[in-house]
Design brief:
The chain has about 190 residues and is α+β, with helices and mostly antiparallel strands. It has a domain of about 110 residues: endopeptidase fold (from Nostoc punctiforme) (Alpha-Beta Complex). It has 4 helices and 8 strands, in the order E-E-E-E-E-E-E-H-E-H-H-H. A 6-stranded antiparallel beta sheet has the order 1-8-2-3-4-7. A two-stranded antiparallel ribbon has the order 5-6. Helix 2 packs antiparallel against helix 3. The longest helix has 28 residues. The radius of gyration is 26 Å and the shape is elongated.
Length: about 190
């Protein structure tokens, strides 16, 4: 997909629309904006919509249709990759467009990839979710920033707890200052 020119200030944090709940992918050349009422996304657009505290991802393929990995319900009900209407994708929620400043595959290839997986039923929350699917279609890399953040959280929390415990232990077990003892010399005669 041919994308807009990259953002000039790469050190800036991507602008996230209030309420988009799209987890910041730490890629400075991406922006997230609300799809305006009556606006039709461009072909191959990366779409997200808030869903159960996460962002649900899909690709706009034209004619009011989105290809996405169907929803998951507590790892029990897994839907396949499907092509649905924008309204069905959003299920009454607001839709956001992720604008990629970095290079994406050609639009025709992005749409071909998305449709090549229609009917696939291999959804896995941490290894093959809707974001993995969209990232693979756009960049040929199956990746989920949400899953990476969720998987990194216990490690980060553990590191912070460990650091706090080490600081406490240092304070508790700090040796009292050593008193300088001056021994008197006793001359033995």
């Amino acid at each position: 997909m041919t994308s807009a020119s990259p953002i000039k200030n790469k050190s800036s944090i991507p602008a996230l629309e209030p309420g988009s709940n799209y987890i910041n992918p730490n890629i400075p050349c991406r922006r997230v904006r609300a799809l305006q009422p009556g606006e039709t996304p461009v072909l191959g657009a990366h779409l997200v919509t808030p869903w159960l505290g996460f962002a649900h991802h899909g690709l706009y393929v034209g004619d009011g249709k989105v290809v996405h990995y169907g929803a998951l319900l507590y790892d029990i009900v897994r839907k396949p990759v499907e092509e649905v209407t924008l309204e069905s994708f959003a299920e009454g929620r607001e839709i956001f467009v992720v604008e990629h400043g970095e290079a994406c595959l050609d639009i025709d290839e992005v749409i071909r990839r998305a449709r090549s997986r229609l009917g696939e039923k291999h959804y896995r929350l941490f290894t093959n979710n809707c974001e993995h699917f969209v990232e693979w279609c756009l960049h040929d890399v199956a990746r989920s920033f949400q899953a990476e953040t969720a998987l990194a959280f216990p490690r980060l929390l553990g590191e912070r707890i460990e650091a706090a415990l080490v600081r406490m232990a240092r304070r508790l077990f700090r040796a009292p200052p050593v008193a300088v003892r001056q021994e008197s010399r006793v001359d033995k005669k």
